[in-house]
Structures are given as structure tokens and as C-alpha cells.
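Researcher: I've been going back and forth with a colleague about how HTH gntR-type domain-containing protein might be arranged in three dimensions. Neither of us has a model we trust, so I'd like an independent prediction. The organism is Deinococcus aluminii, in case that matters for your notes. Sequence below.
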Amino acid sequence: MVAVPPLFSRDFRINRSTSIPIGLQIKGRVEYGIACGDFPPGTRLPTVRDLAQELGVSPVTVSQVYRQLQEEGLISSQPGRGTFVNELPAAYPAPGQFAHLDQLIDQLIAEAIHVGFDQQQLLKRIAARPYTLPSAGVRVMFIGRFQEATEDYVRFLQTLTPPSTQWTATTLQEFGTVLAQAPAPDLIVTLPNLVLDLRQQVGEAPPITDVLFIPSEATRIALAALDPRAQVVAVSTLPEFITTLRAGIERFAPHVPDVTYILHDAPQLAELVAAADAVVYATGSGKVRDLTPSRTKVFEYRYAPDPLYFEQHVLPSLRAIQAKKQQDAREEFTGLTGEITE
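Model: Here is an independent structure prediction for HTH gntR-type domain-containing protein. You can compare it with whatever you and your colleague have in mind.
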């Protein structure tokens, strides 16, 4: 058992000029002593009557403080023996945890004294000071079909979002494994045709949104540069992509009338590619390069997220999530400071 700490009554004095309630001052001193190791587990605290007499306060005030500390699990009363400090709860700060914060507070107090502030003026200044919490980072997972392309999408989208946004790139085949290993995302972004599939797999949370795509800048330039007389073979990885592939080529290479569309696993692919002047292949069909003669122009039809659509339809959702996290953090912080100032 540790004896009653003499420093409790020697170093601690009630400040009656401040608006902080006396009971809260006493409670804060005990909590500080426990957190910093001044009052280690097993320390016997002064009796209610003795502490009230030493501090010149009502025994009712000290009794209320001890009761609050007991409710928080910091101290316990043992009939016939006294009031003792408990072992630190797991969630309670360990001694020395706030050493850096204490240094900053000491610096603040020293600066306040330098400019002529007393304790009450400093406390009022702090209470009236508006504060801005650090920007709340939003975890976003982009789910695509092909890893390399998906990583390219994410690198581009990172340029459109706040630096605090944490992006993860994965595929439909791998996202279950990634989801189990990484922190849950706040938002999932994916291709339009994957939304329903993903919703069935993850349920209602986290929210899922899609993003529209346009041919990448390099793809648009390559299409525009095609010779109008060229025989072009356009190779699609998926049957449902042929329509999209056709629309993009017709839009950015309207001057090229001779375009044949074919799936990457079609039997006649090698024959058509051998006779072509140019081959455009969708992401995932890169093996067609092995069939293409060296004289033939060949390039990938690579997509990029539409920045205008992203800014108008996806970014607002991301900002709303960020604002909610910021508000939650603010309310949590306000709740903590409220306990101190009440």
C-alpha cells in the first residue's frame, strides 16, 4: 500500500479566480496524478474530511469527486481502510503518454506569461478559439477487371481528390481477399457494369458508385492518327465491350471506314490480324501483339475515368463522407473538451 501522497496537498491549490468549478479542479488533479504516475496503483488518497479541510472546500464537493472517480473505475473505497488508486484501466492513458502534449502546454503557458496573460485570460482565449481538425482521410477502393489498368485509373483519380484520400486498386477477382485484409473502405468506386454484382456481394455498406470512362489521351491521339485507307481490326476482350469499342472508334476515328470488330479468342483472329494495317486491342487482349506483323501498327484501346463525370457525380459523395468523418471527429473532440469545461 502506498501512503497518502504529501505532494497532493503541497503542490495543489484551488484557483478561486477561474470559472472552472472547484470539484472539476480537484478531479482533474487526481486524474492527472494517476495518468502521470504521481499516484501509482495502491496509493491511499486522503479521506474526504482531511482533503476538504486541507483545501478549504466543502466535504460534499470532495465526496462528489471521489464518487465520480469511483464510477470511472480509477479509485475504489475499502470500508475501514480508506480510498485507493486502482490499477489503470486498459483504455486509460499510460504514464508518460502525454509527455509531448505537456511540453506543448508548458510552452503555451510560458508564451502567455510573456505577453501578459494570466491563467483565466489564457483559459478564456483557448475556450473561444475556433479550431480546425486535420482533414479526415477517406478510404476509397477502386474495383476493376484488370489490375494494371485499374492501377492506372487510380493514379489518375488521385490527381482529382484531396491528398488525404487513401486509394486501393484491386480487381473483381481479388477484392474479397483485399477486403478481408485491409481496413474497410468508406467508398467503393467501380465500372458501371460491376455495381450490381458488387452490391450483391457486400450488401448495403460501404456505398458503391460508378465512374464513366472515355478513351485515354494516348488512345484518342492514336485513333485520330490512323490512315483513312487503313484496314483496321479492333479486338475486344469481352463480348459486351464490342459496342463500347465501336462507339469510341467511330467517335475518334470517323475518317476510317474499314474496321472489323472481333473477339480475342475468335478462330479467324490470326488471319484478320495478318492482313490488317492497324490493330486496336482492348485491355486484356495484349496477346494479340504476338500475332501482329512488325509492319502493322498496333496499340491498346486504354480507357481513363471521365474527369468531368467524376467531379460532378463521385467527388460530391467523397466530400460528403469526408465531412461526416470530420464532424464525427469534431463531436468526439468537443465531447472531451466539454467534460473538461463543464
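Researcher: What would you highlight for our discussion?
Model: I'd start with this: The domain at 217-301 is CATH 3.40.50.11420 (Rossmann fold). After that, consider the following. The mean pLDDT is 82.
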